[in-house]
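Task card 7
Instruction: Convert sequence to structure tokens.
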Amino acid sequence: MPFDILPHLPLLTVTVIRFVLVTSVSLHILLTKRNTSSAIGWIGTCVMMPALGTILYLMFGINRVRRLAKKLVSGRSTHRFQAIQNSSWNRELDGQFAPLALMVSKLTSRPLVGGNCISCLHDGDGAYPHMLAAIDGAEKSILLCSYIFRNDTIGGQFIEKLAAAQKRGVQVRVLVDGIGSGYFISGVYRHLKKLGIPCARFMHSMLPWRMPFLNLRNHRKILVVDCKIGFMGGLNIADENLILRKPKNPVSDTHFKLEGPVVRQLAEAMAWDWYFATQEELEGDIYFLEHEGEGESIARIVTAGPDTDLEKIEYTMLQAITLARKQVRVMTPYFLPGSRLLSELALAALRGVQVDVIIPRKSNHPPLDWACSANISPLLDAGVRVWLVNPPFNHSKLMVVDRAWSCVGSSNLDIRSLRLNFEINMETYDVTLAGILDDFMIRHRNQRLTHHDLDKRHKLTKIRDAAARLFMPYL
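Output:
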């Protein structure tokens, strides 16, 4: 309701309108909001500002994404999922991590699959040649999803390879985020469309009533070729990731090449995103044929987002930390987790587990660094060791427990990634890979952060950092 109308209406009418607005919104909040703090905040806003509060809640407070996802799920075929459940590569575990494997199976409805070969790749210099070679060798299909896909030098090389693949009859689908790859102008989207390559922008709209989608981003990085070779991790497609070329603002990262049955789960995740964005359902063996594996890694894809996968990556991490006996090591570019993850890390340290959190000395988003500084003191109190990584800015997202279990992918350890973004991780039960990742993190423990470092900040700096912390869910 326009704000200038209310003062001109009779007092009784205004009172009735306000009562109806507050009551209606409050009832909806009580029935749909699980987070108590969020519910109290929205109800308080509507009580103090009935008209404005109602408009804000209708725009930003209702999870229409989850409602849309449920609608799409109900109309989608399920035969491929049944085939995955019946795969001959499915595995069960015994020992320390058996409870975790069982929990994630129930949580994700995806089985653990064996026979995978997983290779760790660092930076664009190490990963892009493998990705471009895979596209060059594509025979049937290419599925590509990237949060950031720039129309720069390396982006142009990817586009050129994708166009060449399509010309030789390969089915190509490219999905880019509606924010990360350019909101007002997306050079890569225009370039792909000009070449006739099927491309979509995830949840992008210039319409005011769809503005809440600005806060929900597809942060996944996926490349699947012929459902035989897959790539996933934290690496975007941009010149800034080519460290050896010394870009102005270099970004170091870690990516993974996958071969084996787990690639099919990666393809399924990408196909769901494509369907969510375009309502085109990808079907057939060209997209989802399960290939035999020659490796020894046991792995599973774990997706999370504000749709039907709410908080599943966080639940997986929480359970893994609970089972830790000796070590928990995490490396993340942005460290702003919610109270659950902070408490679990602190409790692990208090029971004698060596907990290391490894973060950049300086990230590419200063407000995130400010909020992190104000949020980290309780961990230091519990005995968690926090380490700073020297430049270049490291964008890797890694977690290893007891040098036996690993969780890698696109998800940062912040509230946005764990709750709002569409993310994709992979859990692996592979001692060799866990050791490689653990050693990589150990090499990046450049300086230990202490209480003294936090205390010596200027008073104004502490106030700034504390204020930034209030915006944690939106940073």
